[in-house]
Write a structure and sequence with these properties.
Blueprint: E1 13-14, E2 19-20, E3 27-29, E4 36-38, H1 39-42, H2 46-49, E5 52-54, H3 61-64, E6 68-69, H4 95-103, E7 107-108, E8 114-116, H5 123-129, E9 135-137, H6 154-161, E10 166-171, E11 176-181, H7 182-189, E12 198-204, H8 218-223, H9 225-229, E13 244-248, E14 252-257, E15 264-279, H10 283-293, E16 311-316, E17 320-323, E18 328-344, H11 350-362, H12 374-394, H13 401-419, H14 434-457, H15 473-482, H16 488-503, H17 517-529, H18 559-565, H19 614-617, H20 628-633
This protein binds 2-oxoglutaric acid, fe (ii) ion and zinc ion (2 copies).
One zinc ion binds at residues 30, 32-33, 35, 57, 59-60.
Length: 646
Amino acid sequence: FCVAPPPMAAAPLYCVCRQPYDFNRFMIECDICKDWFHGSCVQVVEHHAADIDVYHCPNCEPIHGPSMMKKRNNWHRHDYTEPNDGTRPVQAGTAVFVQELQTRSFASGDEILVPMHGSQVTQCYLEREGFHYPIVVHDLDGLGLKLPPPLFSVSDVEHYVGANKVIDVIDVARQADSKLKLGEFVKYYYQPERSKVLNLISLEFSDTKMSNLVEVPEIARKMSWVENYWPDDSFFPKPFVQKYCLMGMKNSYTDFHIDFGGTSVWYHVLWGEKIFYLIKPTKANLALYESWSSSPNQSEIFFGDKVDKCYKCVVKQGTTIFLPTGWIHAVLTSQDSMAFGGNFLHNLNIGMQLRCYEMERRLKTPDLFKFPYFEAICWYVANNLLETLKELREDNCQPQGYLVDGVKALISSLKTWLRREVRECFEVPDNIRPSRLIKALTKEIRYLEDESNKAGKSQGSAEWPLARSSLEKGYQAQRAARRKLPSNLDVLELHTLEVLKRLEVGPLEEVKRPTSPSTADAIQGMLSMAGLLCQQASAGGDILQQHWWSSQGNSNSNSSSDTWDSSEPCSAPRSPEGEDGSLGEEYSYRESSLSPPLHPSKRHAPNPTPISNQATKGKRPKKGQATTKQRLGKIMKMSRHKGLFL
Ligand SMILES: O=C(O)CCC(=O)C(=O)O
Ligand SMILES: [Fe+2]
Ligand SMILES: [Zn+2]
Ligand SMILES: [Zn+2]
């Protein structure tokens, strides 16, 4: 039998219902009468069709007997009918794989996870410390995350979202994606014996009644590019990727991937348990990931074995985890689970976001698996950051380092996109003059560099114009600190650090992860006691110091994407602590007015029809993309964010 859209003749009629072909509905062909049948009319769901060898429709069944099912020959291959002659390797997601995964050893997540209290996860904290390591939150107080009650069930989701909602579900053992209605999934979920492990990770519910039950963590709302920069009147539909409900059956496995567009992501496990396998997005790891992603036998290679370190992190119920930009992760759902999550782009790691996006392009990731209108949003962001830079310049105030780096990376990508010869998906918004915008941004950056060079030449004296008002005294402090001009403030700062170092139980040089909030807050507390409000201070080290997460020294205006694209051999991953591993080399303290201000044009869009990637909306492939037949014939590799077709 086959499952395919039949050839389009003069609107022929099909199925027991005698309806014309509808692209949006799954159909199956009877191997006897050759007519086509809607899965829903003959009670065959798409993922079950994969188990049918010879299909007999309800008309033919009385004469020819029931359909014949495929025979299972193995438990370790996506195609369970392959003969088990011991020659073929184990593939990701199969029963054998999941069993073996549990016996593998990993570095402990404790080495990298930053445990924080909900109230500590603030924009200020992330701007100060950077967002380079996963954060775990056990005490949700102050996180601004609203959730349904802990006993909220799979059938409650059906109640709020609607049984007819078409969803994309992953058949884990085949790592294949298929569509079914939420009602069918829920029915299957509650069956006492399940023959398949199904994982639902792509149910975006912003446009459903369930939306009111969940509020995204405040940090994800505050930092989100879409929330801050997507204009009300955008020609492009607003992307909705911030509210997912994940319902996974025990032993679901999602193979290693980077979330679409290099989005950062939060997950909260409402009940059940998920195990995250985490890999740092070092240059070396990203290069390995890219070649693994494009290798033909990807499913037979456990990516965790290819890298220096893969961390295992068990996320128990009631826990929230935040993954920063670019972190490569796989997820095992160790018990039936319900989790909520959401993705967001932000200003803290713009260079890395762009590198992830460029990688998706090189890997030819289909649009359905990418951040919707990623380039459009970059243009909006660039437009807004230009205003930010101008305002800061007019106020004689220097932008934070991450923002300068981000804008440089953005300029470099925007230039590339503008130069693209074939404008296959030209996403420059109408009201933006791209060349003019790039020029203006470049000018702002050049201005900042000139100032910084001038300051460098005349070390020791404050080069910036005197503050115009007492309000700006803080700015002076920031400038001095940022540019490493020795000042009284720096002396005090060094002293403070010295004191703190002595207060620490162990030598800070051995801290193997970013400063814990308590240390950072202690620093901040002391400095604020000293009446200092500032940012990006760095004691002793060079502010331009390179970390494993930054592609190049800040002085290179062409930094991120260019370096990433270059064919130079990968350098070994750097230690997260920077060159000497000391805490003191870069920490910061600030006043909130220095967060990139939101441009007045930024208001929330009124709620147009949500659009999203395939993961989110359970849409049918668009014209020109894989059809049902292709999708079952050439089984699509899963992972909504990886999006490779075999
Ligand atoms: O829970 C899962 O199986 C996958 C979660 C994840 O990483 C994702 O949805 O991007
Ligand atoms: Fe993910
Ligand atoms: Zn029908
Ligand atoms: Zn038939």
